[in-house]
Amino acid sequence: MIEEEKLKSFAIIIAIEDYRFSGEQGISQVKFARNDATKFKKLLIDDFGLSEDDIIMWLDKDATKSALEDELRYHIRQLNSDTRFFFYFAGHGFYQNGNNKITCWDTHPSNLSGTTVSLKDVLLEPLENSDCDQSLIF
Length: 138
Fold this sequence. Notes:
The chain starts with 7 loop residues before the first strand and ends with a strand. The protein is an alpha/beta fold. It has four helices and seven strands.
């Protein structure tokens, strides 16, 4: 087991408050998502000792489907056994066909299954297949 002081920390924070396709027939706003994510980042820095360089934060339009499918997986593949990983998501999610799914900034209300991502595919399986031994998911 790695000693606590030798662990590095890395975090990805995602908050989608306003969606690309919002409005009457679109995806509703997630009130306070950006504020909550900003407070979580401050907590990581002030109480857990992470530096700004150890935190990736995707707000609204940065949290696209391709970012979650490609960049999130890439960052998880870079984790090793001496890294503690924090993942935080504030936005809409739902359960569909046996999968927990989360929305992306560019999720389209008329094609939810094609424009959302499976937590299993983009987070849980890549994390399980990485060398990372310690992770916290919010």
